[in-house]
Design a protein that fits this description.
By secondary structure, the protein is of the alpha+beta class. The chain folds into 2 domains: 2-104, Arc Repressor Mutant, subunit A (Orthogonal Bundle), CATH 1.10.10; 131-281, Regulatory factor, effector binding domain (Multidrug-efflux Transporter 1 Regulator Bmrr, Chain A). 40% of the residues lie in helices and 23% in strands. The protein has 9 helices and 9 strands. Strands 1, 2, 3, 4, 5, 6, 7, 8 and 9 form a 9-stranded antiparallel beta sheet that branches. A hairpin with a 5-residue loop joins strand 3 (187-191) and strand 4 (197-205). The longest helix is centred in the first third of the chain and has 19 residues, at 50-68.
């Protein structure tokens, strides 16, 4: 219940400050975790990024006010954090599909996103295996693409990125450089998170003392402590959600800044996987 209470306190803070500046640090403080961890955790639990949730709530309230009051569009725009009517109009139309000025007419269809709350969901009937390991710094190399932070978009964009890599023979070129069979599996890294996107890299360990080929990018990973979750069936999307919604809330750990990995081992047709997340004790 403590975790539920903390998360709902954070949601209450957001709701009370939709017409003011919202501090991500304060949100994380109420949830008793780091700002970095909260921003990584939130979309896995809710399906939307924190910034997108706040944007939807503000535009929902803006639509209510346009319908219920005679306030000027520019005043409502300023109230909910938009510096110009044009910026507000673009955001409003993107969400609701209509211009702000047309909302006061009859029969206009709008979208309302309610305040988010967290409730108990009966889970835990399926065990989750994990281990905690400390590793020295290491380097990876490979090819990356920009992926949306929105889960629905990300789940579509990652397969598209992987197909492009296959079309461009990226896995074959990496394995050839490493002197391995072409159907040997590679790893995936997620890093450089922003409010809207992150980088997704097809990669593998760079041998010490070896220069990375110019066609590939290099990812330097510092010494970190890792929570490692095996997934023999490689159902990674399901496991990512379970880690954030089931393991983190009661584990006593939180995520720290650094890349996360989907590690794949084996050859085509005989692959097992692991998810690696950098963590620290709270």
């Amino acid at each position: 219940m403590d975790w539920l209470d903390r998360m709902n306190d954070a949601m209450d803070y957001i709701e009370s400050n939709l017409a003011d500046n919202i501090s991500y640090d304060k949100i994380a403080q109420l949830a008793c975790c780091s700002t970095y961890h909260f921003q990584r955790m939130f979309p896995f639990i809710t399906g939307v990024t924190l910034s997108e949730y706040i944007r939807r709530r503000r535009l929902t309230l803006a639509a209510f006010e346009l319908q219920a009051t005679d306030a000027k569009v520019i005043d409502i725009a300023m109230k909910y954090g938009y510096e110009s009517p044009d910026a507000f109009t673009r955001a409003f139309k993107s969400l609701h599909g209509v211009m702000p000025a047309s909302v006061r007419g009859m029969g206009v269809s709008l979208k309302a996103y309610p305040k988010m709350t967290f409730r108990i969901s009966m889970k835990g009937d399926t065990e989750m295996n994990y281990r905690i390991e400390s590793r020295e710094a290491f380097e990876m190399f490979g090819f990356y693409g920009e992926i949306s932070r929105e889960q629905d978009k990300a789940f579509a964009e990652v397969p598209q990125f992987l197909k492009k890599c296959d079309d461009d023979l990226i896995p074959d070129r990496i394995n050839e450089f490493l002197g391995r069979f072409h159907d040997t599996t590679l790893h995936s890294a997620v890093f450089d998170h922003t409010d809207t996107a992150f980088k997704y890299m097809i990669c593998y360990h760079l041998p010490k003392g070896v220069e990375v080929p110019q066609e590939f990018a290099k990812l330097s990973v510092p010494a970190l402590t890792w929570a490692i979750f095996p997934e023999p069936q490689c159902e990674m999307q399901i496991l990512w959600k379970r880690i954030y919604s089931e393991w983190f809330p009661t584990s006593g750990y939180e995520q720290v800044e650094g890349p996360g990995f989907e590690m794949y081992y084996g050859m085509a047709g005989h692959v097992i996987g692991e998810i690696w997340i950098p963590v620290r004790k709270k």
